[in-house]
Amino acid sequence: MRNLENYYISFMPKKQFTIPAIIGVFVLVIFALIVQSQFQDSSSGMKMPYVALNMVLRTQMVITDNKEYLENLEKKSGMSRKEIKKLFEYLSKNQTKAEVLRNAKDEISKSIKEIHNLPSDKKLDFFAINILAPYLTIVVNNLDVNDEDEKEIQTIFAELFEFPQDKTNPLLEMTEGTYRYNEGGSSNLSHKYELNDYLKKKGFYLDYDNRRAYANIFRIEHIFCMEEEWKNGEKISIFILKRIYPNILRPSLGYAPAWHSDVVVIKDFFLDLAKEYKNELKDKMPQHPQKDEKANRIRYELAYKDLNGSSLEQIEKNLIIQTAVHEAKHRIDEIEMPSMRLNLDLEVSAYLTSAIAGVYPFLGLRKLIEWTDAYYRSTGYIQLKHLSIELWSLADKSLTQNYTEEDLKAELRKIYENYSTIQEELNFIDLSEFEQRMLPIILSYL
After folding, report:
1. How far apart are CA 116 and CA 111, in angstroms?
2. I want to staple 398 with a disulfide (CB 3.0 to 4.6 A). Which of 107, 145, 403, 433 is the partner?
3. Is residue 318 part of a domain?
């Protein structure tokens, strides 16, 4: 077990006070609003000791009334302002990581006893949120749970998720693999995938990463397709996932794990992203301006072409579609061109495809330009430089000549068809099969 250093909660008042004074004032204010019994649960159903554990292991917490900080914490954590106040009260009483961890481990023991007295229809969610989630957070951070609780968690998992008794429990195999990994050994991704096979049957999905010490259980909100065969036994599943308890998520709109059929889109990010684009249209300036005024104008006008007149809800949904197309193309390219899986060409292919086949061709072109420029700066690949020049020229031309969506898609298709991969100088796969077979599945979400 890794040594758990003390973690002192930071306070950021408007005026300078000593920490004891801050704690006293803050607690008195909160006590006027919230009674002791209320801060044990958040509206998600996750108990406060677990919420606190998620927060202190994922970010530096600051107890403050600073508006900008609180707004950012709301976005990052999925908590309401009221829940954040409850969290602050809790952390003002438990100011070290060691205390927060000890309380969470004690609460797991209580939750294990509690679940046995719950109605059958309440057990699954309670287990996922208040037992399995904190347990995996502790394990992935190379901390420990007492042996008796750990064995009971494995048993309850097997019962609730209907795991055969004659097989080795994938939850046990995955957690033991994590312990081995943190001792310098190796872990097998197949255990995580097998565990997810059981979670998916009950509407849950686990994102778990040993290297980043990250764990989160999502709810599957929408299924585009499940184990759809593409060719030669290779399959694809596409899910929209939604956060179900306070946790700071990895900053990824979606992902397609290497050598696996699953493709996921994380819904939680898209409303805020849509709001950012709305603000951009209002301000007539890209979210992250460059020094080049012409570049800023082009980037803004590309977004304007696709987004002007759309409601926030429409933009959110269309951005989800755009991301699903992008991530699905990763999976299909992996099947069709395995040698391209771990290089930059895979991203060029996915960005071009989402611009051609998605609902936002102009914004899709802008995203590809931004990605290409960023990776050219970091890698120096001359092919990315040539691609960037071509894309900027097309963007300018599409605006000055007032291209329709179909005009732009036709030009982007030419770029796609003529692209030669960096490492092997190969063409991308023919896009027609993807458009005929995969695109209707994804667009059904509209």
Report:
1. 9
2. 403
3. yes
Strand partners, 262: 237
Strands 10-11 and 62-63, by their bridges, are parallel
Residue 21 lies in a domain: no
Q: What is the pTM of this model?
A: 0.89
Beta strands in 114-253 (DSSP E): 204-209, 214-231, 234-243
Tell me the C-alpha distance between 247 and 233, whole Å.
36
- Residue from 134, 77, 48 nearest 248 by CA: 77
- The rounded distance, in Å, linking the Cα atoms of 41 and 43 is 7
- The share of the chain scoring above pLDDT 90, in percent, equals 84
pLDDT-based confidence at residue 300 (cuts at 50, 70, 90): very high
Examine residue 200 and state whether it is found in any structural domain, yes or no.
no
Structurally, how many domains does the chain consist of?
1
**Exposed e or buried b per residue across 44-70, where buried means at least 16 C-beta atoms within 10 angstroms of its C-beta:** bebbbbbbbbbbbbbeebebbeeeeeb
40-47 average pLDDT score: 66
Residues 6+ apart with CB under 8 A from 187: 174, 177, 178, 180, 181, 210
Tell me what percent of the residues of the chain surpass a pLDDT of 70: 90
Provide the token pair at 13.
């008042």
For the stretch 248-252, contacts whose Cβ atoms lie closer than 8 Å and that sit 24 or more positions apart, written own/partner, are 248/54, 248/55, 248/58, 248/59, 248/76, 248/77, 249/76, 249/78, 249/216, 250/207, 250/209, 250/212, 250/214, 250/216
Yes or no: say if 388 and 374 are a contact pair by the CB < 8 Å rule: no
Residue 287 is given by DSSP the state: S
- At residue 27 the predicted structure's pLDDT band, cuts being 50, 70 and 90, is very low
Q: Which domain holds residue 354?
A: 265-443
Nearest by Cα to 271 from 313, 325, 308: 313
Instruction: Kindly report, residue by residue over 149-165, the tens digit of the pLDDT.
Output: 999 999 999 999 999 88
pLDDT of residue 12: 54
The H or E element that residue 265 is part of is: strand 262-266
In a domain, 34, yes or no: no
| Rounded-to-integer distance, Cα 182 and Cα 174, Å | 12
8 A C-beta contact, residue 22 and residue 63 = yes
Element (H, E) at 89: helix 81-93
Nearest to residue 208, comparing CAs of 167, 168, 255?
255
